[in-house]
Amino acid sequence: xxxxxxxxxxxxxxxxxxxxxxxxxYEQDGSALTFGYNYTVRKEDIExxxxxxxxxxxxxxxxxxxxxxxxFACLTEDYIWTKQRITNHALMEARNMEEYSKLSTxx
Length: 107
Known about the structure:
Oligomer: single chain
Number of strands: 3
Helix content: 25-40%
Shape: elongated
Strand content: 25-35%
Order of helices and strands: EHEHEH
């Protein structure tokens, strides 16, 4: 019955990072009130990773209004975010925000 069960599943937590509040348009359609990020990490890495995310986002000037655990999951290694992977993602987001800022200030 459970032939496809993967015995290499890892207990994980989903760390949610709330970033920028959405406009009223989004609130009307019932979606989440903020833009943000989800990072799935090993349960034993929750606290150090949350601290790391806060420091990283602050250093890169990425808005970060709240960091919290939004749920739990059992996943394979492929779906787990490492500090390096989180850093690469945050750097990409910081560059995107910088580019967007340049475009929005053009006249």
